[in-house]
Amino acid sequence: MSESDLVTFGETMLRLSPPDQERLEDAREFEVRAGGAESNVAIAAQRLGTPATWMSKVPETPLGRRTVGELRQHGIDTEVVWSHRGRQGTYYLERAGEPRGTNVIYDRENTAVSTAKARELDLDTIKDARVFFTTGITPALSSTLRDTTASLLKAAREGGTTTAFDFNYRRKLWSPEEAEETMTHLFPGIDVLVIAARDARTVLGFEGDPRQLAHKLGSQYEFETVVVTRGSEGAIGWHDSVVHEQPAYDTDTVSRIGTGDAFTGAFIARRLEGDDVPTALEYAAATAALKRTIPGDVAQVTEEEVEAVVREGGEALSR
């Protein structure tokens, strides 16, 4: 059994990308990287000094072993149920500028993780952690995972583990109506919610600016902490009925993929270190900015780099 401050649960896929801005239909070679919201968060937190474990159900196949092996190289613990049924999820990323735009194509039907049940997983790993984290992507993958997500959140609460959840709505996986029904059912088991302002409006039907959204979410659903992200404008943090605003740091974007996961992983890591919400938001924004300079899904950053961005960015903002 792994002993980590942070345990995450979800699917990690293999990402296949043709070079440069080639079209998938013409590609002769692909770059392969592992990527998934929950493992991305675990890696970002680990990079900032938080021992982290990623938990999942993975096919006992070359592609499954390839995925787990890459995650282990990033220093996190992996606690997986190896399955002889189901397949390894993949997705394809076709990069392009406007007006074509970057396109993501999922291939994650009938994957091993979609059959994962709570009784297959080591619940003590979750109960012994300080924070358990998952996202709204996981229950979108199957009805089984909707039940499993609820059971894991319940187990975490029973063990005294703080629960953190990134709403992470994906329109290619389910409708706003389906997402709202499932997510709001999960809300009573969540302590810390991270949600994009657009998702609060699109899925939950909330209105108002991000500060108002944070207040409404926190008061209506009784979360301990709410973080409302707003893209290039930064984020809003709500805690103890007080709202904190964090602007985004300037960055030259190489890849946007995984930026939100980097933000969330850093926020959790700094809160576990004892930082208050405003400080955790600073580190989260700095980590997200650094991630945008890095190809792939993972925030391969160092604590020193993040601290430099916080220090230099803070000075720039105060001038």
TrEMBL record:
Domain Carbohydrate kinase PfkB: 5-297
Matches recorded under Pfam families: PfkB
InterPro entries, sorted: KDG_KDGal_kin_Halo (IPR054871), PfkB_Carbo_kinase (IPR050306), PfkB_dom (IPR011611), Ribo/fructo_kinase (IPR002139), Ribokinase-like (IPR029056)
Top-level lineage group: Archaea
A GO molecular-function descriptor: kinase activity
Keyword Transferase: yes
Name used for this protein in its record: 2-keto-3-deoxygluconate kinase
Similarity annotation: Belongs to the carbohydrate kinase PfkB family.
Keyword Kinase attached: yes
Record's keyword terms, sorted: Kinase, Transferase
SUPFAM superfamilies for this protein: Ribokinase-like (SSF53613)
NCBIfam families linked: KDG_KDGal_kin_Halo
